[in-house]
Each structure stands twice: as structure tokens, then as C-alpha cells.
Amino acid sequence: MTKRTLKRAFKDSLPILAGYLALGMGFGVMLQSKGYSFWWAILMSCTMFAGSGQYAGVDFLATGASVLTTAVMTFIINARHFFYGFSLLDKYKGAGILKPYMIFGLTDETYSLVCSTELPDDIHHKRYYFFLTALNHSYWITGCTLGAVLGEFLPFSSKGIDFAMTALFVVIMVEQWMNTKEHLPALLGIGTTVVCLMIFGADMFIIPSMVLIAAELLLFRKKLDPESKQNSEVTADD
Amino acid sequence: MIDVGHSLILVGVMAVVIAFLRFSPFLAFPEGRKRPKVITYLGSVLPYAVIGMLVVYCFKNVSVLKYPWGLPELIAALWVLGMHVWRRNTLISVFSGVALYMVLVQLVFV
Fold it and tell me: What residues of chain B lie within 8 A of the CB of A84, using their CB?
């Protein structure tokens, strides 16, 4: 069963393999161009495991940003990750010793696969989530390190290969759309983010989008949540 | 490169902030503790809204006002969408879309 689980996780992670190698190499190239050796790429990809966070991190390092600036900017750039755990409280329950690592590795891509993949019963679910996280992490570390070692001497033009991430999210959106009759949450997510992007600009739109999306989902709770009509507002966590 | 000590501190700060964001829902609602139904509700609808947000996030640096007006991204994204509705095979949808996008940005819209 473990072998089947690992095989399934590997197959599902292939789009991420392409995307992470490309994005990771882009990061590595940028980092070494600022005078940091590949050891820094290994350190950052192991401890941070965040695409946009690490790209911005190169700037903070290169310009010698203050601790406060670095902390606040990293918080803004990665704030979307705050949402992810809420959907996985039950899926990751009982994962034991593996759980902290699985939470540490909750990237956009891992989260998208974990919350949208329907697993058959002959797959060990918790172990699948762990394998997926660890495989993705290994691709990311490999990409970042390769980029920093090879620098600008890449053997071919990989321009555009990072579209794998966009394509994966589009695929997951289509899957979600076809698997449900209720499209309001998806439409709210897209519409709100587009409006916030136009109002707040590319650097500041994520946090306003998150606040508004949460508020809208709460506003439409009566319509979207069949259980909201019951009296008790607290549920046992088991 | 600035000095090694300050660089190490900054990497540490970034790692802690990112981990804090990812861990906080799990720390706020630990296993075996009662949690408000509204949190369970949000957890069930957020994936749909978040994927929509992430798709838009991928296009955040695309400018529709100047050449090539976001056309490579639009064409390749529509290709992926159509391909997936048709074949419903993630690997085919993703990798054919990437190949198309690479051709568009490297050979067509140069």
C-alpha cells in the first residue's frame, strides 16, 4: 500500500516537478547574481519553501533590509498561506509525527492538490499528503540549488516554463467547477481578487482580497452552508 | 552581498513568518478541541475561493495595456481550460499548455 501511495503521489506531483524546477532555477540564478553561493539557495529552499517569499527575499538580502521591513513584507507577500490550514484541519488530523512537516510545507501547489484530489481507499491518505509535500519540497530544493550552481549558463531557454503553475491552478479550478453545482465561492474568489488587483495594484491586493472573500463567504453562509440553520454554533472536533 | 550574520538573521525571520502563517490555523484549533461551526464552514468553501484567487494571482504582473497585451497568457490559459474540459487529464492539460505558452513567448510574441 505504501508503494502504491508513493506512486500516486509522484504521478500527481509531476506538473509541480516542472513548475518548481523552473521557478526554483529562476530564484537560484537571481540569488547567485547578488553574490550568494548555492549554500544560501539550499538554506533558503529548505527553511522557507516559498516561491514568491524567496524571490522577494533575494531583494531583502541584497539590499540589507532591516529585520522589521523583512518581517512585515514577508507577512504581506505570504499572507494567503494563512487561509490554507482552515480547510485541512480534518484532513491532517491524526497525522502524528509527520504533521508539523506537512503544515510547514503547505505551499500554494501542495495545498491545491491536497484539497482537490479525490483519493481511493487503497491509498493511505495521510501518507499520501506527506509524500506529496516531501516530493514537492525535493523538487524545489533541487531547482533552487541548480539555478544557483549553473547561474546564467543554462543549457536551453526555459522562458515560459513557469506557466506550469498557472496551468495547474486552471486545471484544478476546472475540476472543482465540474465536481460541484455551487459555483458562488469560486466566482467570489475570482471576482473579488480581480477587483482588488485593479484597486490596490499587484503588490498590495492579496490581503484586501482575503478579508473581502472571508466577509463575503460569511455573508452568504445561509445560502452555502446547510448546517448553519441548526442551533448549536459549536461542534465537537471528532 | 551584505554580511553573513545579517543575511542569516533575515533568512531566519522570513522562515519564522512563513511558518507562523501556515501553522496558525492548526494552533488556533488543535485536534480534539471543540471549534466553532463557522470555522468548519469556512474550511469547506475556502478551497473554491482560494483557487480562484490563485489563478488571478498568477496573472498579477500581466499588463493588458502594452504589447503583447496579455495574449500569450490568455491563449494558453484558454487552451488549458478547453483541453481539460475535453480530455480531463491533468498531465496532458498542463504540459500541452506549457509547451504552447513557451512557443508563444519565445517564437510568436517576441
Answer: 22, 25, 50
From B3's Cα to the closest Cα of chain A, the distance in A is 8
- Binning chain A into helix, strand and coil, the percentages to the nearest 5 are 75, 0, 25
Q: Residue B106: which of A53, A157, A189 has the nearest Cβ?
A: A157
Q: What is the pLDDT of residues A51-97, one digit of tens each?
A: 889 999 998 999 999 999 999 999 998 999 999 999 999 999 999 99
* pLDDT tens-place string over residues A190-211: 999 999 999 999 989 999 999 9
pTM of the model: 0.88
Q: Distance between CA atoms of A153 and A176, rounded to whole angstroms?
A: 40
Inter-chain contacts counted by CB atoms under 8 A, chains A and B: 282
User: Can you list the pairs that A149-152 forms with residues at least 24 positions away whose Cβ atoms lie under 8 Å?
Assistant: A149/A28, A149/A32, A149/A38, A150/A25, A150/A28, A150/A29, A151/A29, A151/A32, A151/A33, A152/A29, A152/A33
CB atoms within 10 A of CB B99: 15
Non-local (6+) Cβ contacts of A215 within 8 A are none
CB contact under 8 Å between A88 and B84, yes or no, is no
- Provide ipTM, 2 decimals: 0.93
Q: Which residues of B touch A190 (CB under 8 A)?
A: 52-53, 55-56
Q: Given an 8 Å threshold on Cβ–Cβ distance, is A85 in contact with B26?
A: yes
Peptide bond into B68 cis (omega under 30): yes
**Yes or no, beta carbons of A89 and B35 under 8 Å apart:** yes
Which residues of chain A register pLDDT less than 50? Answer: 231, 236-238
Which of A170, A205, A210 is best to mutate for the B interface (most B CBs within 10 A)?
A: A170
Query: Domains of chain A: which residue ranges?
Result: 2-158
- DSSP 8-class letter at A117: P
Residue A25 DSSP SS3 = helix
Q: Has residue B21 got a pLDDT over 60?
A: yes
